[in-house]
Amino acid sequence: MKGAGWLRNNLGLAVAVAAVPLSMFAGTAHALAKPWQLNLTKGVTQTSHEIYTVHMWGFYTCCVIGVIVFGAMIYSMFKFRKSKGAVAATWSHNSKAEIVWTIIPILILIMLAWPATKVMISMADVSGAQMVVKVTGYQWKWGYDYVSVDGKPYHVNFISRLDPLSDKTRELKSGLDPWAVKVDGQNTYLLDVDHPLVVPTDTKIQFLITGGDVIHAWWVPELGWKQDAIPGIINTDWTNIHEPGIYRGQCAELCGQDHGFMPIVVKAVPKAEFMQWLEAQEAAATKPATTATTAAAPTAPAAG
Ligand SMILES: [Cu+2]
After folding, report:
1. Residue 39 DSSP symbol
2. Same structural domain for residues 152 and 249?
3. Could you tell me the pTM of the whole model?
4. Lower CB count within 10 Å: N or C terminus of the chain?
């Protein structure tokens, strides 16, 4: 009885331990992941699809290796056990076997590394980007600068921070229910912002990612990548979203006490709609500059 109880408790513990990191990831997927979603999200970009394919390729390879290795081990242990009169062989080297078990893993590694390298090269290729957005991580918010679209410079920039309702709810003894923080019926506690990053669909967008104080990391799982935002360094990435929608993410580098309170929201809209929004923002952003002698970029206008 005690043994069965121990097993049950520890199975429960194992499941709980497995569920903790999963639930951490689950909250950041497209709005919210499905309960018990165990796998990576396929995402909404070509890059994320490629990453998913490479990931599944690696996973299935591991499964096959696991079945073969453990199968051989378990079979050998039962088939050649002492009680059945098995006698251990006395040889200790076999060059043929050693060559085989060196070459096969090399081939497997090449099979895994080849597609992974291809994806990484394509992820680094920002050529042909139609739009540039600069992302700056701050303690504990994100700064977005629309640098250019189709080669035309823009002066739109704003700060994106945790939405006011999540912010109030998170306060100690706020008495507010985190489950009541919702957008379109989905729980967005700590996953919503005041000003989302609005981007156009079907556009190759280059991101310049940096940090304003400490190291942060800009991560939207649906886009397929995560990039460190390091002070003094500009990292670059790109995306091309084909499906309009709201994509949520979080800072993925422990950056201080409010690391868990600087979510990311990317709102992808059709290009025409985006340009309309951007031009309106640009007009507001450059308005004070028209009275000045220089066309200096104004400070943070409201967005969206
Ligand atoms: Cu951060």
Report:
1. S
2. yes
3. 0.76
4. N
